[in-house]
Amino acid sequence: MNTEITENDDGWTEFEHDGQRWSFDADQLAQWIEEDEDYDFFAYHGLAEPTVESVSQFIDNLKAQR
User: Fold this and answer.
1) What total of structural domains would you count in the chain?
2) What is the pTM of this model?
3) What per-residue string of b and e applies to 19-52 under the rule 16 or more CB within 10 Å gives b?
């Protein structure tokens, strides 16, 4: 379940999905790296109009392929 959704002024949306922190903008998806205390590029999502729900589905699809 997604919790604590934060929409930042810089165009990035931060949220939690499946126990991990994620952030996305119009093109990119980044995952929170605890050791670095920062987000790291994860993938280009390729979604025309990304939402928390569509990005969550994108994450689930990527994990299912691995």
Assistant:
1) 1
2) 0.88
3) eeebbbeeeebbebeeeeeebeebeebeeeebeb
